[in-house]
Amino acid sequence: MTEPFTFEVLARQGRARAGILHTPHGDIPTPIFAPVGTQATVKALTPAQLIELDAKLILSNTYHLYLRPGDELVASLGGLHQFMAWNRPILTDSGGFQVFSLTDMRKVDDDGVTFKSHIDGSTHRLTPEKSIAIQENLGADIIMAFDECASPYDRSYLEKAMNRTHLWAERCLNAQTRRDQALFGIVQGGIFPDLRQQSAETIASLGFPGHAIGGLSVGETKEEMHRVLELVDAILPESKPRYLMGVGTPGDLVNGIRRGIDIFDCVLPTRLARHQAAMTPTGRINLLNAANARDDRPIVTGCGCYTCQHFSRAYLRHLIIAKEMLSATLVSIHNIYTLLQLTRDLRQSILEGRFDEFCIENDPQLATGE
Predict the structure, then answer these.
(1) What is the model's pTM?
(2) Do residues 252 and 286 both lie within one domain?
(3) 1: which residues sit within 8 A by CB, 6+ positions away?
(4) Same domain, 315 and 220
(5) Are residues 34 and 46 in the same domain?
(6) Which domain holds residue 79?
């Protein structure tokens, strides 16, 4: 019987690597950026537009889909792939981060989390077993162990949260019944090297088919993030994919890939688009600025995305001022294309043995990993 999930590393340059993750819904070339479709939709885009962008993987969220429309309803309608008309791989988060972000609306104990819905205030209970059951109903290709994300600097609480995460990881493994889903364990421990080392060693020992690094991009500095990634990279098995959760600026992609990361996701490209901001190789552009009112140039000259091939900055600014929904769609197309194309280019540079040269050519600052 063929294994539903296998991971191949095709080339390395330093710690950066290019590979392929084989899944039941298609191959994922790594490194890869996954647009976020929290509520079974990537905001402002249709699945056809994502296919046109050649997105290979998207992310949806357990917490949100459990509350609305309900994981059992999704299962009754054929699972998430059929429900949202997406036939390529899907990853679901466990809901741990969303519960963490509720702060005063939750109560954590060693068995799980009791929380109030942000929608209607109703009370719910989420345990490792419940998180796995929800994700099995949703039917994503890659699912996450239930973890506790905590403030990166609160050592005393981080230690408790890390130990819970380890216990919950074992319970998630025991609760899993579907073998057509790859369950990833999550490394926690904040910015503290000894906790991160302990967590990486513990999670790596449990036999997960892939590993995620959580609890980053939650307030720590870039330098602290990089130190954590370097430490974890040296511990996690090289034969399995690594996923850096919730991180996705161009610089973060380069610096994560440099430190052995294979999978990224982030809401940033669509969130920026809804706030009139476009990503470019040299930074962000505020399309609402008056300087764009008569600018007939695309967002980025030479960009291959649909938006830049057809529309000017002046037109996009007009849509924004007129509060037309199309503005969010067109700028989201450009922003997602920017990250997908950067990741494709970085992957190709690893395959061709010119990763460092590519980084220097595109941004000399990135060549040093800053």
Answers:
(1) 0.96
(2) no
(3) none
(4) no
(5) yes
(6) 6-266
